[in-house]
Amino acid sequence: MNDLVMGHTAMSNLNGGQRVAVKYFTAALVLFLAQCVFGLLAGIQYVKPDFLYNVLDFNVNRMVHINAMIVWLLFGFMGSVYWLVEDEAGTELVGRKLAEVVFWIFSAAVAVVVVVYLFVQRGPGTQESLWLINEGREYIEAPRWADFGIVFCVLVFFYNVAATFMKGRWSGISGVLVMDLVALAGLYLAGMFYTANVSIDQYWWWWVIHMWVEATWEVLVGCIMAWGLMKTLGARRKIVTTWLYVEVALMFGSGILGLGHHYFWIGTPEYWLGIGGFFSALEPIPLVAMVVHAVYDSGVHRFRSTNHPALAWLIAHAFGNFFGAGVWGFMHTLPQINLYTHGTQWSASHGHLAFYGAYATIVIAMIYIALQRWRGDVWMSAGLKGGWRWKWSLGLQVTGMVGMTIALLIAGYEQSFIERAIGGSTWYGFFQAQTHAWFMQGMIWRQAFGWVFTVGVILLLWDLIAIGRGETRRIQTLGHASNEGVTA
Amino acid sequence: MEQTPWWASEEMWRKTAIWVTAVMAVVLILLTFDSVAVITAGGERVPAYSVINQRIYYRFDRERGYQVPEIGDAAPLFGEALTEEQAEALVSLGKMTVQAKNCMNCHTLLGNGAYYAPDLTKAWLDQGWGAEVVREQLMVQFLMDPGNNARGFGSGRRMPQMDITEEEARGVVAFLKWMSSIDTNGFPANFQPIAQEGD
Prior knowledge:
The structure holds 2 protein chains of 2 kinds.
Chain A: H1 16-47, H2 58-89, H3 96-119, H4 127-132, H5 144-167, H6 172-188, H7 198-233, H8 237-258, H9 271-282, H10 284-300, H11 308-331, H12 335-341, H13 345-374, H14 387-422, H15 427-435, H16 437-466
Chain B: H1 10-39, E1 54-61, E2 66-74, H2 84-100, E3 108-109, E4 112-113, H3 132-144, H4 166-179
Antiparallel strand pairs in B: 1-2, 3-4
Helix pairs in contact in B: 2-4, 3-4
C-alpha cells in the first residue's frame, strides 16, 4: 500500500490481473467510441438515405455499430473479472502471460474482422463467405473463423479465472461467476452452424443472444455489482452475496423460459405465446431487486463512498437496467402487443436503453474503480478536482440515451399503427410509415440526441485521462468489507 | 447480532438459486426437443422445401383467429418442378446468399434483424410485385440491379448493389417463397397479400 505511486498511472500500482484488466478496458473504450461513430453514420442514413450509398451502406454501419458494442462489452466484462480476480481469490492470477497473449490475439482478430467488414463487406452465397467474411446473422455476424477464435479466447479466460479461484479461495461471488462463465461460453456454441432452415437457425440463434443478454450477462453484472458495492461503499459481503443469490434465482427463474418471447413468430408452436409471455413478464422482478439492493446499500452507507463516479455509474446501472431491460422490455413483451411491435423501432428503443443501462454503465463504473487504483488509490470522493467532467459526461450520456430511446419509441408507435395496424404490414405500408412526419421527426431527434450522447462519451474519455492525475490525497477510508463467507 | 430469519439466509437463497436454475434449464431442454421436431422442414409448421413447387396463400383462419399460410395447387417456381433435394439446394443457396450479403442488417426475417428496410417474412406474397405472372421475374431483376429498380415507394431509400448473380437471385426468391409458407402464428398481422390464381 505504501509503495503506491500517487497521481500517475503506474503499472506498479496494480496486481497481475489488474495489469491485464487495464488493457481490456482500454480496448473496450476504443470500441465504445467506434460504436458511437457507426451509430451516428447509420442514423444519418435514416434522415439522408443517399449518404454513403454504395460506399458504406446502412447494413455495414449498423453491423459495425452493434458488433462493436458486443465486443466492447465483452472486453469490459473480461477486464472487470481480471480486475477483481486476485482480490477475490486472495492469490495471484494463474496464467498472466497467457492472459496477455490472448488479449493481443483477441484484439488483432477483432481488428481483422472489422477491416473485412468495412472493406470487403460481402461475398458470394457460399460457405466460404460465411467462414471468411460475414455470417450475416445479427449480433453474431463474425465469420466462423472468428467464432473459433472467440471460443478459444473465452476458454483461456475461463481457465485463468477458475484456476485462480481453485488455487486461492472461493466465495459466493466467485462461485456464481465461474458457473455463469461456463454457461456463457457454452451457449456461444449454439450459434456456430449453418442451416437452410430459417426457423431452426433463429431458434438456436436466440439461445445465444437471449441467454447472453437476458440471462448470463445479467448474472455476470450481478457479480460485478456485488463486488463493486463492497468496494465503493464497504457493503458487507454476507449481504451482497445473499442478494446475488436472490438475483440469480429470479434472473434464471424468469429469464430462461423468458426466451419464449422470441419464439412467438418464428414458426415455433403456439405454447410459446403463453410461456414466453408469462415468464418474460416476470423478467423485470430481479431488476427491481437490483435497484432496491443498490439504493438500500447506498442509503445505509449514507452515500459515503470511496469513489463517487463509480458509485454514480453503479446506480445509473441499477436504474438503467430496470428501465431499459425491465420496463422497456415488458412494455412490448406480451404477444398481443408484440404482434404489432415486433421488428419495429420499438425494438430499437428497447435495445438502446437496455444495452446501455444494463451493461455499458457498469463497465464504466468498473473502469473508474480501476483508474483510482491505477493512479495510486487516490481520492475520488467529494471535492474531486475536475469533478464536473464525470458529472457532465454522465448527464450528457444519460440525456442523450433517454432522448434517443424516446425518439425511437415514438417512431415505433407510429410504425406499429401505420405500417402494421392500418397498412397491413406490406412493403407499401412499411414505407408509408417510414416517410410519415412523425417517424421522420423521431429519426431527426434520435440523431440530435445521438450527438449529445457522443459528446458525453468524448467527455468520459477526457475524464478518464485526467481524473486523479496529480492527486495527492489518499482514497477515502471506510469500514472494510467483511470477508466472512470466503472459504480458503 | 440479531439472528437472520430463514427466508433471508444466504444458504436458503443459494439452494433456491441452484434448484430454480436447474428446473428451468430442464424444462427448456424438454420444450426444445418438441419445438425443434415441429420446426424441422417437413414438420407440422415448417413445410418441406419442395413447397416452392406449389402456390402459397396467406388466409384468415376463423378457428385460430389470425392469418395462416395455405398450400395450394402446383405452381412451380420459374416454371420448373424440383425434387426435394433440388428444392433444398436452391433454398439453401438463397439462404446463404441472404447471409453472405448481410441482408439482416437492413431487413428483418420473421421480424428479426434491422428496421431500415421491409420485413421479408411474407415478401413473396407482397402486393408490391404487382401481378402474380410477373412477380418472379421482377424479383430477380430487382435483386440483381436494385439501384435501377428501386422499390422505396418515395422514401428515397434504395437497396445497394449487392453483386447478386442470377443464380443467387433465383435462390433468394426460392428462399423467400419457402419462408412465406412458415406458420408464424399470424405474424405479420393484417397482411394484405398479392392476388393469386385461386383467390
